[in-house]
Amino acid sequence: MEMQSVRSxxxxxxxxxxxxxxxxxxxxxxxxxxxxxxxxLDPTSAAAQAIDxxxxxxxFEGLTRFMGDGSxxxxxxxxxxxxxxxxxxxxxxREGVTFHDGTAMDAEDVKFSLDRALTEDSANAQKALFAGxxxxxxxxPLTVKVTLAAPNGNFxxxxxxxxxxxxxxxxxxxxxxxxxxxxxxxxxxxVQGDSITLNRNPEYWGDQPALETATFKFISDPTAxxxxxxxxxxxxxxxxxAPENLPQFEADPRFQxxxxxxxxxxxxxxxxxxxxxxxxxxxxxxAHAIDRQAIIDxxxxxxxxxxxxxxxxxxxxxxxxxxxxxxxxxxxxALLAEAGFADGIETTLHLPPPSYARRGxxxxxxxxxxxxxxxxxxxxEWAQWLESVFKGKDFGLTIVSHTExxxxxxYARPDYYFQYDSLDFQTLMDxxxxxxxxxxxxxxxxxAQRLIAADYVNGYLFQxxxxxxxxxGVQGLWENAPTAAIDLTAISWxx
Length: 495
Hints:
The strands form 4 sheets. Strands 1, 8, 9, 10, 11, 12, 13, 14, 15, 16 and 17 form an 11-stranded mixed β-sheet that branches. The protein has a 4-stranded antiparallel β-sheet with strand order 4-5-7-6, covered by helices on one side. The protein has a two-stranded antiparallel ribbon with strand order 2-3. The protein is globular, with a radius of gyration of 25 Å. The chain has helices at residues 2-25, 49-55, 107-118, 155-158, 222-230, 246-250, 280-289, 292-300, 329-338, 355-369, 382-391, 423-433, 438-454; strands at residues 29-34, 64-66, 72-74, 77-82, 88-93, 133-140, 143-148, 185-191, 195-200, 213-218, 236-237, 255-270, 305-306, 345-351, 373-379, 397-402, 459-471, 474-475, 492-493. The chain is an alpha+beta fold. The chain contains 13 helices and 19 strands. It has 2 domains: 28-254 and 472-495, D-Maltodextrin-Binding Protein, domain 2, CATH 3.40.190; 262-464, Dipeptide-binding Protein, Domain 3 (Dipeptide-binding Protein, domain 3), CATH 3.10.105. 29% of the residues lie in helices and 23% in strands.
């Protein structure tokens, strides 16, 4: 009897251990912190990268998509054929794909999405991605033909952007607050100012993700970010805003630190149409007033790669032009005097919330003051920045990281917020868009980089590093950021 009790007790212990182990293995929820909260959840009508961070591939999908290594692979289009002259793309859509509300995703939705982006009053922040589309034709429910005015070697790449995801006419009215897509996760709840929750989509057409729920938590203050991570209140902090704390996480076995690259060219954006910045000598003076390494060291604690043009250093076509705008305060003063501003100038410096902007802005303002440029710092929230700077163009200087992939083409848009208008650059981009030969494209990209560097369009600072912190058991996170995304589909917990 006594031996039987011992055996029963041992069995109970074993059963309990098994249950605990299975519970540990079954961990399927995650809390991911971000510094910025999205203004809304429609990636097709705003420039805020925080939108894509939440919804890209999770809620919304495009015909093609980016993977974590930067490659472009099939998305909602399982295959495509390109005509011999490069102007017609016939996409074969995946069968059996439904939106989260149960409606079928078919060629009509593709036509609706692309036509919507093309309309004159479209709110799409990247309308230039679609400018070359001449027509979108539904062949049958699973086949759609897109005709371009001219060949575009970037077309499949362009369709992978978050701005090109497929949406439905049935749910477009509420897309900003109740996004309905085809992705592996459905929208759950948005507690304004706090968090957004997504839930696994049991009807997803592809492989089911390991996660059942994911909560995106918004923590803007770097000190609070450090405290929340150390307390293990959150599982992951994407783009951790306090790089000075990374050594502590690296030394702590509870955590892992992921250091990678991004597509984020961090620049001192300059309003090229606002006097005195319409004078190239003043823009050149700005460039020579800046000490890039001091900004990287002071604001980013050494994380970041100096750039001299708007192009990612990890791209094979990158040209190092940092010498074109080397730190030279005396040269900056001489250029200002030559332009008629020997007594200096006054301007504004709008700083959105990210650490690279707020911390970097303080350093840059001090550097500019040394050469006679007095920049009044104006701290703005992200929604204010989008409204007053990006849309309203009401600024002198601002600091922002452009995280869109291969986005040098924005310099061909005279109405873009920094208002650079160069016919030479626009012609160069037209040529690039119709060129498919890789070697020739690299040559043209080099010319483009040199042209905007020579025109001193903006102050080119550094390529933003991707600095992530996560609990040791999280796997499947993107180390690099080829686009703004926190792709939940491959994330899981180790057993």
